[in-house]
Amino acid sequence: MFLTFSRKNMSQKLSLLLIIFGFIWGLLLLHYTVQHPRRPSSVELREQILDLSKRYVKALAEENKSLMDGENGASLAGYESRDTAVAMERLSISPGAAAAVDEYLEYRRVVGEDDGGILFTPEEYEEYKTKVLPMRLRNRLYVSWRSPTGMDCKLVGPETLCFCTHRYKQHKTDFEVIPPERPISLPCKVSQCPCSAFYYVPLNGTQPIRCRCKHFADQHSADPERACRACTKCPGFHSYFTCGCGHPTYTHETIVETKEERLALGKPVGQDVPYAAMGGLTGFSSLVEGYMRLDDSGIGAPSLEALGSPVIAMDHPFLRAHQGPSSSLQGTSNQDSSLRRPDEDDMAYFERRYQERLKMEKAAKKKTAGALPSKMKQKDEKK
């Protein structure tokens, strides 16, 4: 009987504890709900962002329209630095606002970094163009990164990075009189930058290349000695990174030359443009590396002999796929030979193609060797 009474007492105590625990848990849940309201979902956030963006762009367009209708509407005085509105869908602006954006882009291409981040007034802008543009058209400097073979592997543009990590447009590029000494130094205009001349260094993808001391280029000083800041053994930056032209980096040079000097070398100079820090850019092809550029500054145009030569089995598959119908049996056999045969694995296919190439090379050598004696006989007969 005593055991039965004790069991009932224990069950009552457990029930009471569970009730108290549930009550406390409910109070905590209520407190958390009051203190931390429900967060909006991603869909609601997106709708809010779109609504704010639309209202911002609408207000900006109306303000630009009022500026365009005013006295100084066509000028640059109405431009102010603004935060960019982030929108997740296509937004349209009025024609007046679009014209204002185009005018600002033109201003930025002409002025570059010369305004120090503060927009010129219309009077200052006109005075700047009157003073600088004739000088810029007359004394433009062409900057390139040249290989020992004379090919411009890289044509420097406004956004090209220097060894000092600043861009080409942040260096001195306009001269009233071109300096007579060579090479021409283009010092960096950024405050407290020790760079005294623009020096191009290629990138390995998106990463800076390494020096022979195993440290990156940006770990070296930007002064003329370019000593390593991470070690004491490196006397200066010296990289063995191989360019696309096949030559290492240390054999290339950053060349700054005038229009006359470039024409004397047979390099393209393009058209005279009023934009700042154009460097060596003369067209869209200037954005391509030298070994892929088919003009006189790059690898050059292929010869007529190369363009007119027949497509053989050793050529690129793209050329073989787009060649015209072959009238010779040899062309047909080459096409059939380049195809993989049924039940032929990879190793057997590549081995067969390798043996065919060896036979072709031997046949070409025999043909060349047979042609030499005939030429000698013709010379003897003429004598």
Automatic annotation (TrEMBL):
Residues 338-363 have a biased composition (Basic and acidic residues). Coiled coil: none annotated. Residues 4-83 form the MGT5A-like N-terminal domain. Residues 321-383 are annotated as: Disordered. Keywords: Glycoprotein, Membrane, Secreted, Transmembrane, Transmembrane helix. Residues 324-337 have a biased composition (Polar residues). The keyword DNA damage does not apply. It is found in: Secreted. Its main location: secreted. The chain crosses the membrane at residues 14-34. One of its GO terms (cellular component) is extracellular region. InterPro entries: Fam221a/b, MGT5A-like_N. Belongs to the FAM221 family. This is Protein FAM221A. It comes from Monodelphis domestica. The lineage of its organism: Eukaryota, Metazoa, Chordata, Craniata, Vertebrata.
